[in-house]
Amino acid sequence: RARPIIMTTVAMVAGMVPSALGFGAGGEFRSPMAIAVIGGLIMSTLLSLVFVPALYTVMDSFGGWLRSVFGRAPKSVA
Hints:
Layout: H1 2-21, H2 27-70
């Protein structure tokens, strides 16, 4: 799952680098937006590849702990 995410991020960042460096006509106008887009891409990639799986692991362990403390919920009588 990491490979397509990383490939997409690298391609998008590589495409935004000329705008971030201010090349071409009106480059100084587009440069701040390109820098913000690059930063957002990098942060969202790190969040999706590191933070979300780590949070899932912590919550799964917490659920296991809750089950061990409180036991199984009683089955409802229908």
